[in-house]
Amino acid sequence: MVYTVFGGIFMTRSIFYFWMAIVLCVGKLFAAQIEPTSIVYLECFDGAEKVTAGTGVIVSSEGHVLTAAHVAKENLTCKGARASQNPAPVRDLTPVGVASNGHDFAIVKFSRLGEETFEPVPLVANTTNMKGRAINIWGYPEGGAASPSVQTGTVLNSERDGDGMMQSLTITSAGMSGGPVLSNGHLVGLVAGAQFNAIGQVSNYALLAAEAFKTEVRRVRDDVRANRREDDLAEIEIDLLGEGTCNELLRGALSSRYPNFIPSLVSDKNKPSMSILSQEAEFWVTITTGPAQWFDCKEGNLRNSLYFPVGLVLRPVKDIAIADDAGNQVEWTMFKTEYGLMVLIDRQAVAPITADIGYVFALGNGVYKVCGPGDDKSCDPGENLKAKGNFGKWPYISGWDSYLRTTDPDALSAAYTEYLAFRENQDLVLADDPRIYHRRFKHRAPQALNDDPACAIQKAYLYEFHKRFDQDALHQNSAYGAPVDYSFCYLPPPEASVRTAGYRQIKVITESIAEQMFDKLWTVQVRTSPTELVKKLSGLLPDVNPLYTDIIRCGQNLRPARSPFDTANQQDPVAIGDLVTAELASDRIQPDQNLGYRFRLYQPSAGESRSQTLSKVPLFQDIDLEIFCGDDREPLRAQAVNIYFSPVFDSPLRLDMKAVENAFIENFNSIDHEGRIYVKDGYIERICNYLEYQGWLDTLKAALKKETALSFSMTRLGLDKEIVANHFAHLILATLFFTEVEMQTEDNHGGCPR
Prior knowledge:
Organism: Litoreibacter arenae DSM 19593
Low-confidence stretches: 1-32, 436-441, 557-593
Protein name: Serine protease
Strand content: 25-35%
Radius of gyration: 35 Å
Distance between the termini: 82 Å
Largest sheet: 7 strands, antiparallel
Shape: elongated
Number of domains: 4
Number of strands: 40
């Protein structure tokens, strides 16, 4: 084939080119898939004489221009203009050395003017399957309009000749050499020239395929990123070192996960706690119910996170002052919870855990009878009460009303050790064959509470919700001036066929138990709406997905997004503002019209585990909620929850929320879930009391334990399934559920406002 290039001033076959120039001038301009300012008109000179003219395209945010080598020839001085060829270009273009390997391309560069910005054209990954693909070709034909013209056509072949060319029948002309060839908005080639047959007729038009120049384009982009990254780091360092709770928390997260990211950041990991509560005790426990909260860094106010029960173990992290609705500064304490969330909880809701104190709490829906000093001999500390309707049955302990406190933690620990062995023994026997329970369980089958050390009657002080030990209060604030009798076990009612004692669902907390809890923990801080600083950071960190989608409604088109699994192993950080999705397909995909998605964000702010896996976890992760939509495109109910936690999970941990909701309704007799309004806002349910909280927690944990991804995480983290399931169940409750509950006090019985 014979090539005739289009960049020169003096061309052969002048009549042919004159005709094509007329065609281009009157041709219809198609809607732009590219910013006009990204199309550059070039004129190149030998001294004062114009030698060539052609087209180029912006390929970097710093003003690099890709064009044809036969336009920007060596030893010529080139000038350029953006989006216009009239008047003549006056801006200098500086040559950039490239390894072209004989291919027909060159790169030159504008100098930035003031606040000028450059919009680079996305580069396609490869062009091996381009045959028949629709293309748009942009350029400045000689004698054409001042603005760039566009021609449409298709690619004729997938093969490349020795010069890296592919062919098209799209009409191009003098002045368009070096112009961009786009497919679906991505750069797939450059205009090179025409190919003629043996009798001088145009057979097709030559396009230099992107494989010839993409390595050099990426190289200049990487250089830009490296330079801009240094500027970005300097700018973001100033922001991070600023005052404010959110900056301080972000600094701690960064220094823990990326200790060398910004050397000037001092890690808070080994600093002593900044909470006044830590001077009294390292660990605390909730003694009432209410809302755990977080500080919304974007909105600058407090938001309810999730419901907390009596008996939640906490470690104070820091004290912060937050303005209330009246503008007054109120002191709050940020706690790390036993299930791994960083939350704010009112100090009036907690009591200290020290070496000389132990606590006993009821778990689940259990309401367990205790016997006070004034009760008669008929009182049975082994009686289990109903979850509701216990008027006149006081005293008892429950997960929302009351708890026990003892000043003999050693005796409590010894009894608890017996209880754990007793529980394991019963579980093994029952799992073997429940029908022969009473025959197989002979060696530890007490008929009375004091027949077994695990069930023996013990003594402790009973406290009602929201009341803590107070040396100066009546009875030191306990329900009685003396301890009550209680047991870790229950006895079936007299009419039961089998009178063997069983174990209760209880939780014992001592200082040593609290230490063990936090030794196995990792912590996350929930962020549902990222701030500008977080968005900047996500563009700089090496393994973070920088895309944030708030909500995509039913039937709305969804542009493909790079998931954390695509970026988790990415080692090359990018600069803020770079188009990191440039090489992703730009075609918009249509999701199932019955699904809507809401993406949320949470931040693993610290990793504490016996496994080193968490040291590789990206700082930001995603949770998304799929919502089932009706025929009217209105959300009806939750479809599925996906948790991205790479590299702990090889793939998203996916929960079928329809099955989870059905299990909740069946087991806890909840209200009908159809027609709820919460899913419109991206929430599954509202939690208003302890029984709802415990029901959803149990249901979510049961579903999580069945997931294969959870089993993988257990192995990698070296953690028990219960701990991992508890963490992710609360993470779901904190992000995809909400609560309007108020803290339970003597004057306020909690619950959601009516």
